[in-house]
Amino acid sequence: MTLKSKALVAAVALVSSIAVNAQTVTYKLRGADKADADAVACLEQALPIAKNGSVEIIIGEAGDKAVKQYANLIPTTAEGFYLLTSPSKVVIAGRDGAGTFYGVQQFLQMADKQAVTESSEAPAIALRGVIEGFYGNPWSFENRMSQLKFYGENKMNVYVYGPKDDPYHHSRWYEPYPTDKAAELAELVKYAAKNKVKFTWAMHPSNSIETDEDRAKALKKFQLMYDLGVRSFAIFFDDISAKSVDTQVDYLNFLDREFVKKHSDVESLVVCPTIYNRAWNSGNYLDTMGKGLNPDIKIMWTGNSVCDMIDEADCDWFSEQTGRLPFIWLNYPVNDYGLHNQLLGPVVGNDPKLAKKVSAFCSNPMQYAEASKVALYSLADFAWDPDNFDAQAVWERSLASLMPDHVDAFRTFCLNNVDVGVSVHGLRFYGETPDFKSLNESLPTLYSNDPADIFKTMGAITSYERYFQSRVDAAQELLDAADSGNLLLTEIREWISALAIQGYQGLDLCKMAEALTNGNTQQFIDAYRSYTDWTEKAFNNVSRDFPGSIQSVRVQTGTLYVAPWIKNTAAELADAFKKSGVEYPEDLFPKQLLENGSYYIKYNGLILGNPNAGGRGGKPVFQAEIDDINPNRQEWVLKLDAVTGRYEIRNSKDDRYINELCNFGVNPYSADWNTYIITKNDEGKFAIQNAGSGGDAYWGVNGDVIAPGAPANARYVFEFIPVTK
Q1: What are the tens digits of pLDDT across the range 484-543?
Q2: Cβ neighbours of 454 (radius 10 Å)
């Protein structure tokens, strides 16, 4: 067949397909009377069902007469299913009711339901789902109902209810829920079952576990929750100072013996231990818990640290300690430790080899329930079939599923919200704004004052202007959709506004660079004032700032690459404008305590110097004499870091920086570690204080060198004298 005839056949097939799909397709059911009722209900709600429908759907579980001829094709693993589709017939056969339900979900999500396909699927991990275990505003009833439907659609079968700021879970665990909240929980339990989700209610009794009264209260609360329909329970001992692991073990075995085992319909107990990650392990806590707990009790585990993606070695180590498989509590995309940032990027870092090494794989999400679905979509896919998980492809599918009418704009937005930034837990994701990263690598600066670079400068301005305008356009499209009632976009509206603000900031920087290039003073002033207005709007952009909110959030976006570039570029352009010699209003630029430039640093008449210039390591030294040979060994360049708002201090001779130990740094310079807070007292003396990851010690003087750890009465001891030449 020639290339031309192949193309013709393809075109005819496409036209035929369009013609068939344009017709109204109706369906008739066979086996629905015996098949899982929830699976059948999903079909009836989603499809036009008619007695004489043109497409027959054969549905049932293993053993049902309707699917008998397909029995050998149904996976033997629980929740597995066989799915066959064609223009005239569909077969959905599950190993059990959940399997049939998941087969229905897969069929309903097919873009072309008349395509010829055949597949047999089963989960690689038996328990897959979500733990609502974050700090901050708990999800609403509506959030949870939406989540449970989403879990069913994406083959997740576990939901653990344990929001830290629900008092009836934690601080007032022993009290019954108020009538209205109890009714909501009962409704959630029923709706979870319809979506094949095990609703697990968790209790956090802290250390109130020793006395007979404590234990009687626990049994009573379990019974109250049982009466609401709960058939799965967990105990959380996380984030407390545990008195005794032996007491915890005895308490858990008591609940297992006196409640779980006395109810034939209650699932195995689950516990989140106090030592729930490897970094915190010491002594014999995990060994004692593993050996002492009744065999059926499952133990939760977050991996090598509090926030960590999970690999096979993590699981093996845990199993060696406890003698059982870990119930994975993945602290992603939870952001209660860095709540200024959303986590909406591709989910990377989990090891597909862990499938046979875990008893469960569950995620702790964000307090923003709808936005959490971006990550949960991927995590559901991973937990079902980790061997074939493709993070980028699944992430793209999540965007199309969650935001079908605004995929491109939503992709732009999500890529601006990937990394949580510097935090105590150290979990980072560097795939943020790849288009900006590429642009910045090819055009690292927006402006050059060298006339020879004018064409390069104008090209950079055009490229950055195009980039930031695209951000404004994407944000506006999403804001319009939020105004039209899109729940996900409404929930994170402030972050979309932040993207728009960042776009406008970038456009103002382009105008400032253009004004410098053209020598247009007024254009620069107007653009700079506009930039500062947008910066103020960004600072005041707060999410969940309503009465009764547990956590109000100052919103950040693009924090890995874009935001630092904006701050640094604004500072560079302002410096270039100041140095141009033009006149400008006194109030145009914010006043710095110390302007960027060169200074002598003095103490008691002595002057700080760098006697071993060009060396490695060592300390700056206070000297009595002026260095006439190499005066710049006693000159120190101060620069306000635009991102941290703190000063870096470098020697003018060799550009070595002073680190948080008051030595010359030998590691790569880090603004987070090596920038300092400088303050001034009424007597005109200055104090220097570590900040960021460098701690908060004040600098003092020990003999003839500076040293961290100055007492309160010896902090304001330094002088900064501008170097004038």
Answers
A1: 999 999 999 999 999 999 999 999 999 999 999 999 999 999 999 999 999 999 988 999
A2: 13
Taking the C-alpha atoms of residue 472 and residue 535, their distance in angstroms, rounded to an integer, is 15
Residue reference for tokens 């007292």 = 681
CA pair distance 651, 633, nearest whole angstrom: 7
Cβ(686)–Cβ(720) under 8 Å? yes
**Exactly one of 38, 165, 239, 336 is catalytic; which is it?**
239
> Which among 649, 656, 650, 648 is positioned nearest to 613, based on CA atoms?
656
Q: Omega of the bond prior to 451 within 30 degrees of 0, cis?
A: no
Three-state SS sequence of 674-719:
CCEEEEECCCCCEEEECCHHHCCCEEEEECCEEEECCCHHHCCCEE
The contacts of residue 590 (CB under 8 Å, 6+ apart) are none
Checking if the pLDDT of 13 tops 60, the result is no
Q: Is the pLDDT at 249 greater than 50, yes or no?
A: yes
Q: What are the pLDDT digits (tens) for 183-230?
A: 999 999 999 999 999 999 999 999 999 999 999 999 999 999 999 999
Enter the tokens of residue 478: 């999403």
pTM value > 0.90? no
For residue 432, pLDDT over 70 is answered with yes
Q: Residue 365 — φ and ψ, nearest 5°?
A: -90, -170
Q: How many Cα neighbours within 13 Å face the side chain of 689?
A: 16
Is 409 exposed, middle or buried (CB count within 10 Å of its CB: 0-12, 13-18, 19+)?
buried
Q: 241 by DSSP, 3-state: which?
A: coil
Q: What is the DSSP string of 82-101?
A: EEEE-SSEEEEEESSHHHHH
CA 472 to chain centre: 23
What pLDDT, in 10s, does the model give residues 604-638?
999 999 999 888 999 999 999 998 788 889 999 99
φ and ψ of 647, to 5 deg: -95, 140
Residues 6+ apart with CB under 8 A from 159: 129, 130, 132, 144, 147, 148, 151, 192, 197, 198, 199, 200
Rounded mean pLDDT of 152-163?
98
CA pair distance 253, 450, nearest whole angstrom: 76
- Whether the CB-CB separation of 671 and 639 falls below 8 Å is answered with no
Query: Nearest 5°: CA angle at 468, between 463 and 474?
Result: 130
* Nearest-angstrom CA–CA distance, 147 and 170: 22
pLDDT of 669 above 90 = yes
Q: How far is CA 342 from CA 37, 337, 450, in A?
A: 38, 11, 40
In angstroms, the CA 27 to CA 141 distance is 34
Q: pLDDT for 550-572, tens place per residue?
A: 888 889 999 999 999 999 999 99
Beta carbons of 664 and 621 less than 8 angstroms apart? no
How does residue 590 score in pLDDT terms, banded at 50, 70 and 90? confident
Rounded Cα gap, residues 689 and 712, in angstroms:
12
* Six-digit token string for 570: 């604004």
Report how far residue 541's alpha carbon sits from residue 501's, in angstroms, rounded to the nearest whole number.
10
Q: 147-152: which pairs have CB atoms within 8 A and are 24 or more residues apart?
A: 147/369, 147/373, 148/188, 148/191, 148/192, 148/195, 148/197, 149/191, 149/195, 150/373, 150/376, 151/195, 151/197, 151/380, 152/101, 152/105, 152/194, 152/195, 152/196, 152/197
- Beta bridge partner(s), residue 132: 161
Q: Does residue 696 carry a catalytic annotation?
A: no
Task: State the pLDDT at residue 725.
Answer: 54
**Single-letter amino acid, residue 342:** Q
